[in-house]
Write a structure and sequence with these properties.
Number of domains: 1
Number of helices: 13
Distance between the termini: 40 Å
Shape: globular
Low-confidence stretches: none
Order of helices and strands: HEEHHHHHHHHHHHH
Structural class: mainly alpha
Mean pLDDT: 91
Largest sheet: 2 strands, antiparallel
Radius of gyration: 20 Å
Length: 333
């Protein structure tokens, strides 16, 4: 990271604060290059290639998303070109890597689904997770901390179930992001930029879909088998997924484009409450663990009902926090 920071400063590759920024100082934004380098070295060095046939396609998709991110960080791209890059990377994973959703896991009483439906649902899932992770990367340490938590939990599960290849992938992401976080915690010396957030989001999407599919084939009674596994995964991704959905709905209700920038994300609300970047990050990470705990305890109620519980709980908590933040704003200074 230090050499990247030095190069970014010399070449003036900065993230310049604007009206909706949560930071006030010009900061290098190429941390994703370090994440990519550390992650790729670890994956290539430690992966059991003979037992990991999907790896070449995973690495190919990562390279696509990395190049898109670097291009956007150095010279911003129009949104539709970034979306095309994300679609291309996702299609490689779906049609070549076979990392896709193959069932609705009992939601609405449906289990098996046609291949085309599964591929379409998988593409949607990849795009949603990638962009939701990108959207929560708004304060120091947040996106990296959430990614580290998910990578740690999934990596332990893959290791415990003997899925060495995906365990290596998860732990490689964890190690690379932890190395980045050392320089991203307040006072942040570097941001991950789109290079990092898009790569981290795609990696989490790969791990999430594989976790759901792998859990589904475990025999009944296995010590590591979860019930309502898609909802378990939603609980871990509740912050980026719910926050993105909430913000998009609020913007559309106001007659705005869902992609119009503002300061309505949950991390902005935390800052409005008077929390520092690191305090807000800590609260949101603990909150993610709490949602995971709820999902774990209620996993027997079924995927659909558990998702409803999680979304309802997230809505209530967010409304309460948002209302309190609005009251603080109205108080005389």
């Amino acid at each position: 990271m230090p050499p990247i920071i030095n190069v970014a400063k010399k070449k003036k590759l900065y993230d310049v604060p604007n009206g909706r920024s949560s930071h006030t100082e010009i900061t290098p934004s190429l941390g994703g290059i370090g994440i990519f380098a550390g992650m790729m070295f670890s994956v290539v060095f430690w992966s059991p290639f003979k037992e990991f046939p999907e790896l070449q396609y995973i690495l190919g998709s990562f390279l696509i998303i990395f190049l898109i991110g670097v291009r956007d960080d150095i010279l911003p791209m129009v949104p539709w070109k970034k979306l095309l890059g994300q679609i291309a990377a996702s299609l490689v994973l779906i049609f070549k890597g076979g990392i896709m959703i193959t069932s609705l896991y009992g939601v609405f009483g449906v289990w098996e689904i046609p291949y085309v439906v599964g591929a379409s649902l998988s593409l949607f899932t990849y795009i949603v997770i990638v962009n939701s992770v990108n959207l929560i990367d708004g304060i120091n340490g947040l996106a990296g901390s959430i990614a580290s938590l998910i990578a740690l939990l999934l990596g332990l599960w893959f290791f415990a179930t003997g899925d060495t290849g995906f365990a290596v992938l998860a732990f490689s992401l964890l190690g690379a992001v932890l190395g980045f976080l050392k320089y991203n915690f307040t006072p942040a010396r570097i941001f991950m930029g789109d290079t990092g957030s898009l790569l981290v989001g795609l990696t989490l999407a790969v791990l999430s879909i594989h976790f759901i599919e792998s859990n589904n084939v475990l025999p009944a009674g296995d010590a590591y088998k979860y019930n309502s596994v898609p909802a378990i995964m939603v609980s871990l991704l509740i912050l980026p997924l719910f926050d993105t959905m909430r913000v998009f709905i609020k913007r559309m209700l106001k007659g705005k484009s869902p992609f119009s920038p503002d300061r309505t994300h949950i991390h902005h609300i935390m800052l409005d409450l008077g929390l520092s970047h690191m305090e807000a990050t800590g609260v949101l990470v603990v909150g993610t663990l709490a949602f995971f705990g709820v999902a774990f305890l209620l996993q027997d109620i079924g995927t659909l009902y558990l998702v409803i519980v999680l979304v309802t709980l997230a809505t209530i908590v967010t409304r309460l926090v948002d209302s309190y933040a609005n009251k603080i704003k109205k108080l005389p200074s």
